[in-house]
Amino acid sequence: MSKDELKDISLKLGRRNFLKLASIGAGIGATSMFASTNNVREATKEEIKNPFPGSKKVKTICSICSAGCGVVAEVQNGVWVRQDVAQDHPISEGSHCCKGIDQIDLVKSKQRVKHPLKKVDGKWQRISWKQAIEEISEKMLKLRAENGPDVAMFLGSAKFNLQQAFYFRKFAAMWGTNNIDHVARI
Ligand code: SF4
């Protein structure tokens, strides 16, 4: 299909519906790819019936940016086990961007960093919070002593809530610089 034909379809459907269809298409493509490598199997009857017995669905919002798209978090015995989009959310209307679609992975990912790590001789080593804070603050203070407070630029996170943003701003002021901005600006 040509670019012009795609544009025409996109205009007729509207951006949100077009993106939904595009993601379904990508999903089908990915599913076919996995199926061809035997990495997927059919769900068992029990799994289809209810893979998480006794779970509750909790309406919440994606915390990654200030759009605040709706998320339905399925929770079983206090553990977040599955994520779905909130179809009736007034802002996101049943869709997410690629960051929010897998918010659950921020919690459950095996790659999630849960403690400070330091690279020593090319290998990551676990260190204590005390050691991490002391080493980082020593280096920061040395840089400031040698170059002045404007040596640093503070970039706030789109994940900050109001209180975190407040403390972050205070921290930059205490450090002595106005070099502070939001990460989205870069
Ligand atoms: S799903 Fe994407 S756009 Fe929506 S709040 Fe999360 S990061 Fe922001």
Describe the structure.
There is one protein chain. By secondary structure, this protein is α+β, with helices and mostly antiparallel strands. The chain has three domains: 1-41, no CATH class; 51-112, ADC-like domains (N-terminal domain of TfIIb, Single Sheet), CATH 2.20.25; 117-185, 3-Layer(aba) Sandwich (Rossmann fold), CATH 3.40.50. Helices cover 41% and strands 18% of the residues. It has six helices and seven strands. It has helices at 3-13, 15-36, 45-49, 104-108, 129-147, 162-175, and strands at residues 56-61, 70-76, 79-85, 117-120, 123-126, 154-156, 180-182. The strands form three sheets. It has a three-stranded antiparallel β-sheet. The protein has a two-stranded antiparallel ribbon with strand order 4-5. Strand 6, helix 6 (162-175) and strand 7 form a beta-alpha-beta unit. Helix 1 crosses helix 2. It starts with a helix and ends with a strand. Bound molecules: iron/sulfur cluster (SF4). Iron/sulfur cluster (SF4) is lined by residues 62, 64-65, 67-69, 92, 96-97, 99-100.
Output the radius of gyration: 23 Å
DSSP strand (E) fraction? 15-25%
The number of domains: 3
Structural class: alpha+beta
State the CATH class of the largest domain: Alpha Beta
Which percent range fits the helix content?
Answer: 40-55%
Largest sheet entry: 3 strands, antiparallel
Uncertain runs are none
- Order of secondary-structure elements: HHHEEEHEEHEHE
Mean pLDDT score = 84
Per CATH, the architecture of the largest domain is: 3-Layer(aba) Sandwich
What strand order characterises the main sheet? 1-2-3
GO molecular function, one term: electron transfer activity
Protein name: 4Fe-4S Mo/W bis-MGD-type domain-containing protein
Organism: Malaciobacter molluscorum LMG 25693
Subcellular location: Cell envelope
